[in-house]
Design brief:
Pfam families: Bflower_2 (PF21785). Helix content is 18%, strand content 41%. The protein is of the alpha+beta class and 135 residues long. It has a twelve-stranded antiparallel β-barrel with strand order 1-2-3-4-5-6-7-8-9-10-11-12.
């Protein structure tokens, strides 16, 4: 039993730290988002965090915004800057559509042109990465 635990521990560590790739429209790697909410650029340097409590932080852990459970996105002063709808539509504070995150991870601008891919990433997190961090 001890040998099994020793063999499985490294595998679990790798699986838990796995990052999903964020790609541009041409499929070039723009960055990564880890399961713990850490956002990295293509060189694996940390550029931000999405915390469990919804806080969005830059690389220095300074809060730059908030992602609310109801899809409202706020800036650091708690002013609403946008909305992430359950269907993947992304709106600005005036409720004008600025983009979409499809179920398959395709990210589109308001004209439905593909601007990137974020497969296996929560829609809300993909929206934050593309529209807050400008990936």
């Amino acid at each position: 039993m001890k040998h099994l635990i020793v063999l499985l521990a490294p595998l679990l560590l790798v699986l838990c730290s796995h990052a999903q790739t964020i790609e541009a429209g041409n499929h070039s790697t723009k960055g990564y988002i880890k399961s713990n909410g850490t956002i990295e650029n293509s060189s694996h340097s940390t550029v931000g965090y999405i915390k469990e409590n919804g806080a969005i932080e830059n690389s220095s852990h300074i809060t730059i915004g908030y992602l609310k459970d109801n899809g409202v996105v706020e800036n650091a002063s708690h002013s609403t800057v946008g909305y992430i709808k359950k269907n993947g539509t992304i709106e600005n504070s005036s409720h004008s559509t600025i983009g979409y995150v499809k179920e398959n991870g395709t990210v589109e601008n308001s004209s439905h042109s593909t601007i990137g891919y974020a497969s296996d990433v929560k829609r809300e997190w993909a929206a934050v990465v593309f529209f807050f961090f400008k990936f």
